[in-house]
Amino acid sequence: MTEQVLFGEWLRKQRRALDLSRQALADQVGCAEITLRRIETGTLKPSRELALLLLEKIGVPQMEREDWIRFARGQSGMPSQAAPISKPAPRTNLPASLTSFIGREKEQAETIRLITKHRLVTLIGPGGIGKTRLSLKVGDQLLEKYPDGVWLVELASLNRPDLLPQTIAALFDLKSTSNRPSLEILIDFLQAKNILLMLDNCEHLLDACAQLADHLLKHCPNLKILATSREGLGVMGEASYQVPALELPDVRQILEKLRDFESVSLFEERAQLVQTGFTLTMDNASAVAQICSRLDGIPLAIELAAVHVNTLSPAEIAAQLAECFQILTGGNRAALPRQQTIRASIEWSWNLLSEPEKILLRRLSVFAGGWTLESAQAVCDGEVLSLTDALVRKSLIAAELEAEHATRYRFHEIVRQYAREKLIEAGEEENTRSRHLKFILEFSEQLALEVQGPQQAIWHVRAFYEVDNVRLALQWADKTDVQAGLYLSSRLAWLWYNFDLREGNEWLSRFLQKPESHTYPQARLQALYMYGDLMTRQQQFEAARSAAEEGVELSRTLGDQRGEMDSLLLLARGPLNPAQRAELNRQALEMAQTLGDTETTVRVLWELGRSERLKGSQTFEHWKKAITLARPLENWRMLANMLSMLGDAFVLNGEVESAQPYLDEADMLYKKLNLLSPTSQLLSAYGQIAFIRGDFEKARAYFQDTVRIGIEIGSRSNTIWGRAHLGYVALREGNLAEARRIFHETARSFQQDSYELGVAFTLEGIAGLYIATAHPEHAAQLIGWADATREKIGETRPRVEQADVDKTIAACIARMGEVAFADAYEQGRKMTLEEAITFALEEN
């Protein structure tokens, strides 16, 4: 007779097979460790919601979960089919290696031993010794040990220590706000995570890296850090490991033994990449051994030497290195020997270049984080294409080919530093960096148009590739060209919206505060509008109002009616009463009509309708009039946007049948134009229609597509809103565990963005969740907070959402009575944003 298997026993085996501690699994499903212990010992049966979460984490296929839930609840025996144990794919951003990794077994083992024992390990050594390659190899081997991933932070191109926390936060898609610094948000995210964080090239940010590591390790108990640097971070508890050079041969050793030495093996393999027939022979063995010895076993130097076997013999290479060393030793005796040798290798490679190749190499050093052929041609003179190919062949720059995107090029960092020295020596830094700034300025102008067009997905990717170059251009503008800085910082909406609003505030504020900015009124006007827009998005209404008022005054001085109109509309987005808002919108509309510019009139009508937020039927009249005026203009993108917006407004107003024709026409135009971002908004409207009609399967599919497209184009806002709507779908279907998980996630995301309307929408959903779990007093307080918040920011709840909230209120009163509901409601109105979120996310 087969012995009966209990769910708790089965669960314990699955957990151990996944190498999860009881606490780790409890953290992942959101229950207490004691609860999981009681389930595994058979003294507690899990709720349906908790059982579903456990089965999902274990890896039971969705189609089989109902049988397993009954088993977990003690309602049936163990299902006959065995649930497979499937470990999730490791979470990491470690790059795939393009070449093999030679040797270093001892170093790998020692590094793994140290990181197992200590929480902070720093690999120390001179440039080119192979610290980065060793750390990547170790990280790849440790992937299975860290459930939340092994993550690489490349710091070589980061020049500002104050941007270190937000650079790491961006890796996890965490956005700082005006109220919460990046470090605080990063600590909150990492506190419950089991992660190995790899900080590569810390030497130029030593103090910042040390302070950050100290803060993170003190507050995040399961975090470990593996750093690479030319010197230790100097943090308490740090374990340092001096990375040695590759094993060296004695030139008298016979050929059969020579390949056992890592340095010789590396030279031979890299030489074969440029000369496939190259191999060690009795004739060249001595020279190869000399090369590796002269280069002190430094991998980068060996690779740089090996690529020249197609033009020089090993003996000639060894002779050239000997000459370079004599010159270098006489020039800089203070440098460390290994630094001397690798510099000599680069110096020797430099001397082998033609003059045009030298000019291009040193001018390319103005780029940070890589460049494309197009950007190189804009900044540098000469035959850039052929010269670039030559430099790639000589391993002085590397090419990174990605499908569907332009090839990007980058330096080895030690080469970039050397090339920059040569640029300064040649007296070309100012001119080349100014040309770099001009290119980025033109790029930002084109980008502002392209991210709204049919190639928007490609341009979003390209924009994020150029973040380091944009920052470098802003730094140069800060020193040399205020006008360019004003224009550039005001055109970077894509960066500030998707990466960090606070960084946008900082740059715009820096340029606007410069006295000379007043000598460029047109550029200042654009910067004022962008600054006011960012401040409005963060509910910093006083700063936004000040910028908008100056914008109105400045545009009137310039006679710029479009600028005045934009500034008036910006003022109208503040916390005003309906009469004040209507007056500002009326002024903007009259101005647009006075211009006789139909397209401008259409845009103002559109903004006018948006600003009224369904306060009355006049909203629809504005949009209908705008659509009528827009059709003859044949601006199909603008028309599609307005059709989509009007359709969505009808949906929110509960008039689904009226919405359908507008949405369908917008859908046809978007497909014709191949636009993704607006399509994401349109799919959300279709999802809401399906939700209203009770077709939750179709609603889920629409909202999932909304999230997918939001991620694809880099729209954080669309992604979070799509997820929030999925929470409502899960709630309506009775999947409370999924709804809770989604609402918790989106509430935190909206909080990180300081987006109070999004928080209110999510907490209203959580109020419905509290009704479903018999906690009406919690629901009442959340509705009270949401109502007070909407009043504060001037956002009236749409009719279809109000209907859901009314049902929640009715359920509260039915269960707790009107007096108790009123008391709880008033308590909620007094909560701050942080208090409301903390209260909402309590276990229920």
Could you characterize the architecture of this molecule?
- The chain is mainly alpha-helical and 844 residues long.
- Among the domains are: 7-72, lambda repressor-like DNA-binding domains (434 Repressor (Amino-terminal Domain), Orthogonal Bundle), CATH 1.10.260; 105-242, Rossmann fold (3-Layer(aba) Sandwich), CATH 3.40.50.300; 255-351, no CATH class; 635-733, Tetratricopeptide repeat domain (Serine Threonine Protein Phosphatase 5, Tetratricopeptide repeat, Alpha Horseshoe); 735-840, no CATH class.
- The protein is 66% helix and 5% strand.
- It contains 43 helices and eight strands.
- The strands form two sheets. Strands 2-3-4-1-5 form a five-stranded parallel β-sheet, sandwiched between helices. Strands 6-8-7 form a three-stranded antiparallel β-sheet, with helices on both faces.
- A hairpin with a 2-residue loop joins β7 and β8.
- α1 (7-17) packs across α3 (33-41).
- The longest helix has 22 residues, at 429-450.
- The model is unreliable at 325-340 (pLDDT under 50).
Strand order of the largest sheet: 2-3-4-1-5
Through-space gap between termini = 43 Å
Overall structural class, as computed from helix and strand content, comes to mainly alpha
Number of alpha- plus pi-helical segments:
43
CATH class of the domain at 105-242: Alpha Beta
Task: State the major sheet.
Answer: 5 strands, parallel
Evaluate the radius of gyration. Answer: 31 Å
CATH superfamily of the domain at 105-242: P-loop containing nucleotide triphosphate hydrolases
Share of residues in strands: under 5%
Number of strands: 8
Mean pLDDT: 83
Percentage of residues in helical conformation: 55-70%
| CATH fold call of the domain at 105-242 | Rossmann fold
Give the low-pLDDT segments: 325-340
**Shape type:** globular
Per CATH, which architecture of the domain at 105-242? 3-Layer(aba) Sandwich
